[in-house]
Amino acid sequence: MKTIILSFFSIFFSTGIYAQFGVIARPDFALMYRGYPNKLVPMISSDETASISVSGGTCTRSTWTVNDVQYNGYIVNPTGTQVTITLTGKSKNGKVKNYGTFNYKVKPFPMPQLENYTISKSIGSKLTVGLGADCPLFASYEIIGGDLTIGDEVIPFSGNNVPASALQKAAIDMNIAISLTYKRTGSESASIIQGVLKVVE
């Protein structure tokens, strides 16, 4: 599973370089995504309890596991074009320290791609969409259905399986257009993706 964890010393989409008295970060990659559970892990002194306040979005405390490592942090869902987060720490004796304010630009969540390049005329094919191996974000998708265009004929199908019967008029090595309707897990809205598939045996 690919998961991005955002710390306040490691800007989203970046790798922070930690030293005893300083930090290097990449502010040009201070991004959050709309409609996506952006994960935040505040990192402060171990003898303090971290908390955040959010402007331009909502946040909830959350715990999740990545590669058998458990993280305690926050899920932030942007509601505007910029999210501003203030990080504070509270010591055991009740002293509160302000660690600063951090601004994040908000962008639309990346569009997925059709992961199939071919479709079998004899047995049909199971279709998948995803963000691709080079994308550090993780998302799962449900394919609701779609259409194949073979010549002048548009052939609908349901779900993510295209039956062989839908390819009766297709020839081997033909390129056919496909339109898919899909939903990202956790999102209520459906979207459409288009592509081209090569017909194989």
Write a concise synopsis of the structure shown:
The chain has 201 residues and is mostly beta strands. Helices cover 0% and strands 57% of the residues. It contains no helices and 19 strands.
Number of helices: 0
CATH fold call of the largest domain: Immunoglobulin-like
Helix/strand-derived category reads mainly beta
Structure summary, number of beta strands: 19
Poorly predicted ranges: 1-22
- What string gives the helices and strands in order? EEEEEEEEEEEEEEEEEEE
What separation lies between the terminal Cα atoms?
A: 33 Å
* Whole-number total of structural domains: 2
Rg calculated over all Cα atoms? 23 Å
The whole-number mean of residue pLDDT values reads 87
CATH class term of the largest domain: Mainly Beta
Overall description:
By secondary structure, the protein is mainly β. The protein has strands spanning 5-7, 17-18, 23-24, 31-34, 38-41, 48-55, 57-66, 69-78, 82-91, 96-108, 113-114, 118-120, 125-126, 129-130, 141-150, 153-158, 161-162, 175-184, 190-200. The chain has 2 domains: 5-108, Immunoglobulin-like (Sandwich), CATH 2.60.40; 113-200, Immunoglobulin-like. The strands form 6 sheets. It has a 5-stranded mixed beta sheet with strand order 12-19-18-15-16, with no helix packed on it. Strands 1-5-8-7 form a 4-stranded mixed beta sheet, with no helix packed on it. It is elongated, with a radius of gyration of 23 Å. The model is unreliable at 1-22 (pLDDT under 50).
Key features?
201 residues; mainly beta; Immunoglobulin-like; 2 domains; 5-stranded mixed sheet; 4-stranded mixed sheet; disordered N terminus
